[in-house]
Amino acid sequence: MAVKIRLARRGRKKRAMYDIVVADARAPRDGRFIEKLGTYNPNTNPADVVLNVDSAVKWLFNGAQPTDTARTLIQKKGVLLRKHLQIGVNKGAITQEQSDAKFEEWQKSKGDKDAALLQASASKLAGEKEAKMESERKINQARIEELAKKNTPAPAEEPVAEAQAEGEEAAPEAAASEAAAPEGEAEA
User: Fold this and answer.
1) How do residues 36-50 score in pLDDT, each as one tens digit?
2) Nearest-CA neighbor of 7 among 52, 69, 80, 49?
3) Which Gene3D superfamilies did the record assign (predicted)?
4) How many alpha carbons lie under 13 Å from residue 93 in its C-beta half-sphere?
5) Beta-carbon neighbour count of residue 22 at 10 Å?
6) How far apart are CA 151 and CA 148, in angstroms?
7) Would you say domain 3-94 falls under CATH 3.30.1320.10?
8) Confidence tier at 188 by pLDDT (50, 70, 90)
9) Which is it for the CA torsion 86, 92, 96, 99, positive or negative?
């Protein structure tokens, strides 16, 4: 019996989620399986992979062959590294404690890299969001100024007309006072 580590699809239309399973190669994709090793959710950013590493290593030692996609997922979780280290333990090249220490160190460095990538992605998204908000503020300010210009000329024309009318009334009075002033100077 050929055994495969592969993905079994579940979830709704266009929002697929996958189970990582060990199944007979002849079984249908979403059909009967031997053991469920974990889940894979590609709908999140970054994709969420939950995997039982020890069970996956056990199945690899028993001869299960991963499909290409499953191989990528289990490699990212360190299953293939764990298998490689375990082969070294079985041959006597390293001890189990050394193997576990190397695997823990790898997991820690991998976690740090993933956290750094997540932080960079989040800061990039925040920067893009702030840039979009700033452009929206500029557009809104331009719209407000345009509306203000559109609405203010009508009230501004009436005071100008009143000032011109007052200016015409004041001009004859000023001319009369100027004419009266020279007469007063001549008498003095």
Assistant:
1) 999 999 998 888 999
2) 69
3) 3.30.1320.10
4) 7
5) 22
6) 5
7) yes
8) very low
9) negative
* All structural domains of the chain with their residue ranges: 3-94
In this prediction the pTM is 0.63
Share of the chain above pLDDT 70, in %: 80
Q: Which of 11, 43, 37, 10 is nearest to 23 (CA)?
A: 37
Altogether, the residues listed in the chain come to a count of 188
What is the identity of the amino acid at 50? V
Does the pLDDT of residue 182 top 60, yes or no? no
Say if residues 77 and 49 touch (Cβ distance below 8 Å). Answer: yes
Q: How many Cβ atoms are within 10 Å of 21's Cβ, its own excluded?
A: 23
The per-residue pLDDT for 161 is 57
For the sheet with 65-66, list strands across it.
Answer: 48-51, 35-41, 15-24, 3-12, 65-66
Q: Using alpha carbons, list the distances in angstroms from residue 55 to 21, 69, 123, 152, 158.
A: 11, 18, 37, 76, 87
Q: Does residue 178 surpass a pLDDT of 80? A: no
Tell me phi and psi for residue 69, to 5 degrees. Answer: -65, -45
